Amino acid sequence: MFAAASRPEYSTGVTHAPSGVARPAPRPWPALRAALLTFVLAVQCVAATPAQPIAPERFARAENQRLVGWLRAALAAIGISIERPRLEQTLIDASEDLIALRSQLLEPVAPFFRYTDTRQQWGLFLLGSRQCFRLHIQGRNRDGGWELLYRAGAEDRLGLAPWLRYRRLRGIFNPNQRGARAQYRGFVDWVSRRILAENIEYDAIRVSMERLEIGEPGEPTRSLGFEHVEVRTRAELVP
Amino acid sequence: MSLVERWIRFWDRHEPADALAVLRILVGAVVLSDLAEVGRLGLVEALWAPIEDGGIGPSRHARPISLTYAWLGASASHAWLIYVIACMAALAVTLGARTRASALVLVVAYAELSRLSPDADRGIDVLLRNALLVLAFSGAGKTLSYDAFRAHGHLHPFVRVPSWPRVFLVLQLTVLYFWAGILKQTAPWTALGGYSALFLVLQQPHYASFASLALSPELLAALSPLLAMATFVTVFWERGALVLPLLFYFRETRTRTGRVRAFVNRARLLEIWVALGVVFHLSLALSLELGIFPWGCLALYPALARPAAIRNVVARTARTIRRIARGAARARNPR
Asked: Which residues pair with A23 in a beta bridge?
């Protein structure tokens, strides 16, 4: 079934038929291919540049203040003295100009990126902030009291964890820096409907996000209260 | 030889198809396993059906954002249709059946699913779509595939294919890791926050595995210096991806002269970078619940290996499987 063979690792200038018999490549093809690949590389390089301009509030953060400080020092070293506010405004203006240029350059190929939903913006694994959220789901019983049904990483009375720990659902309910995600309310509808359908003892479901602040090593994690609180009653969800 | 001629020759290089074939199998398997997980959890309608049909997807009355919904209408059955097409295409890519067409269909179906539930589509899905697009235009289906079996009568023919797709995937890894490293500017990823990012991640209830969440505060505090060092190495390693193409080029041209090239190859800097990456992703897989993220990234690592080395590994694995199969057959039938 498997055929072993040892041949040189690379060759150039010829293409090979499936049978392994070499045939001369048509001469224009390597040049045309190189041109096409160069074009694709150039487009992807432009696509890899930042897609958002610098937001002014970002300069308030310590790490960005440090970066601006380094930049000022570098400019001072070559004899350019510039005040911090002016430098920050210059950076904002430059970033807006670059984003406008980027959009213009990518406009002809925008349908390709849209229909394949591909891009080169990689904010991967940026977790690690001191504040984070914890999903809470509570059910209202016949006495009107709220019972804790699910608390991420701790409580799971109804066996919801396999769903709620799945990455795609987490992407929907876990808030980002701008707040609750666009599909969060749809998620609340879905999870409430699912729980109420299987548990007749509850007549309403409350979903909320507890904001946590993780302490220094040896310090406990503190709760900073609940946000994005949504309640769904049985009457609301039953058509 | 002019610079233009050298450029054309560089993109016209050919190599054994094995590395791209292994990449194809791994990428297809990762996508397929994730889609199968959605099916196992019963989340197909939840994730992609319209709100009116019990899903979290776009409303039936919203302007259609997916081609399928625009052409066929928004309904749970059409969400299922896209899902089934994506599963079949992922299986076909893994098996290498009509590889080019399957990879293109998978990209389109995968993108359709993304448009139906944008928040459920993560960075790793974009990375896998990018990789599938490159594989669709490569010779990844020329060996270790059903296509090869149809053409040659066996699964592992020796076929040479253009090497540019592998170069593209190395560049993709470079951009991926470099930007991920550059964007890690928040205090916990820097000295300002004492490189505490990994210490903090292990306590985030939505991401930490149950094993990580069970670690006592005392143990976490004791481990914090080690985690700080791991955070520093992670950022250094990700930003170091910028030199990945150079390390790759030096390894590919190792027969040429030059002190820097000789030092880089002797010190095995590329292999060290790859080893750090494997350790990083396996650690994430063990300590956090990130789904296919670590496996999707690792699926692209064969692009960094020498094609001949991959071919040897495949041939050795095939020999081992044959030996085991013969042994099992003898055990079943001692005569």
From this structure: A15
